[in-house]
């Protein structure tokens, strides 16, 4: 499935650890709850960028489209949860997003560029994780996650193209910086399972 998105695969530093895949399958309800939170946060991030950068026409267009899609995905996840009697509860966020965002530069346009690069990593990793889970899921969930792959890959492309557009200079070094951070966050063990967590810590 990911072979259809070679640029996305090349962008990510590594595949998801097999131990994370097994952890996800053992925590399917938690996977769905956190997935719902991720979609809601993604829509919120897109809206925040629209409010903060009102003079960036291309950003406004792409983030408006992205926010609508993310909210639709939230509704779809929530609908599946309701059918399965899974309550939507508060969860503490994983260290993944914070681990990336704490390195965002504070001056513009560097702040915007870093935020967009991180958005590209979040969307690319989401796409990769859905893809590795699909062969192991029941028919309903597998069909649902397969339906998300194309939009998640497009969101990755949108974030990356916007970062390139607004940087005014090559961003390869900055991508490499965040790629190294992302790799560390994905392979380092975690205490709590999340969509973007590392593998479980050994007991």
Brief descriptors of the model:
203 residues, mainly alpha, Ferritin, Ferritin-like, tRNA 2-(methylsulfanyl)-N(6)-isopentenyladenosine(37) hydroxylase activity, tRNA-Hydrxlase_MiaE
Would you kindly provide a written description of the structure presented here, covering whatever features stand out?
This protein has 203 residues and is mostly helical. The chain has a single domain, classed as Up-down Bundle (Ferritin). Helices cover 70% and strands 0% of the residues. The chain has eight helices and no strands. Helix 3 packs antiparallel against helix 4. It is globular, with a radius of gyration of 16 Å. The relative contact order is 0.19.
Helix and strand sequence: HHHHHHHH
Helix-strand category: mainly alpha
The CATH topology corresponds to: Ferritin
The low-pLDDT segments are: none
Cα-atom Rg, whole angstroms?
16 Å
Q: At the fourth CATH level, what is the homologous superfamily?
A: Ferritin, core subunit, four-helix bundle
Main β-sheet description: none
The CATH class is identified as Mainly Alpha
- On the 0 to 100 scale, the average pLDDT is 96
C-alpha end-to-end distance? 33 Å
Name the overall outline.
globular
Instruction: Estimate what percentage of residues fall within beta strands.
Output: under 5%
GO biological process, one term: tRNA modification
Protein name: tRNA-(Ms[2]io[6]A)-hydroxylase
InterPro entries: Ferritin-like, Ferritin-like_SF, tRNA-Hydrxlase_MiaE
Organism: Maribrevibacterium harenarium
